[in-house]
Amino acid sequence: MADSPETVEVPEQEIAQSLLGELLEKSRSYHKSDAFKELLDFAVKLRNFAPFNAFLLHLQRPGLRFAASAYDWAERHGRSIKEGACPLIILWPFGPVALVYDIADTEGPPLPAAVANAFSASGKIDSQHMTRFAKRLGNRGIDVRFIAYGDGLAGFVQPATEQPMQAVRRSKSDKEKPDYRVRVNANHDPNVQFATLAHELAHLYLGHLGADTYLKIPDRSQAKHNQQELEAEAVSYLVCRRNGISSQSEQYLADYVREHTSVEKMDLDAILRSAGQIEALLGIGEQTRFGPRKPGKKRPKSAKT
Questions:
Q1: Co-location of 104 and 147 in the same domain
Q2: For 180-198, what is the mean pLDDT?
Q3: What's the whole-model pTM score?
Q4: For a Cys staple, 103 with which of 63, 66, 153, 251, CB 3.0–4.6 Å?
Q5: What are the b/e assignments for 35-66, b being 16+ CB within 10 Å?
């Protein structure tokens, strides 16, 4: 196994000015619609990484098929890192960066088909999933209810109050009143409801409703309506496809790619980070591990950002 440490302690400012600066400079190539759609599909395939980290991996190695930490390669897949292998860098909440390796840089038994298949699905969404999601969101001040609307209305999101969001961070137990209302059509299939929920949460986390310090959401309410809808559809597409759900977002984005040549006004960083935030909020998606569970910890360190 490679001798390089899995985590690298480097000042965040230095990272932003060097490594990430260089990587994100390359992101200008994704202003073309076809490249943008290709990136989204790549983030769909690499489900064991948060969407933004999948983006960083795609920038470093576009032909990447599957990647994992040295720990996961050894513990989950029984494979070792080849001598002289070149690691790839991702953001890590406790790091601030961590190292992962392409499957081409490892040796050992072949991956199981369920792991090697980039488009593996987690199964269909049912009404129990939706009820559980609504409860989780309620703990964060997002009131989700299922209302029997006409078929033409899938749902919507809006602030629960016209007052500005408080800047003081509150604990979940203190958050007795919802700050947002999300309404989803009760007459729709649960898979459609999930796509709707992802779309409406995307509007919230993309900052289309304004800033919210408690949820760490920036103010991007000035973006034009068409841009907001395309960004929300891109997030919904990522969240749905990464969790085995097909939705109309796929056709919507495909049509947009055919009709346009540039997506330069969209905030790619916001789209990828919002998709990751929504997955974490709903408690879905897979995680890359960098070590065994430590005593007293509820969950292992992961590559989610």
A1: no
A2: 92
A3: 0.73
A4: 66
A5: ebbebbbbbbbbbbbbbbbbbbbbbbeeebeb
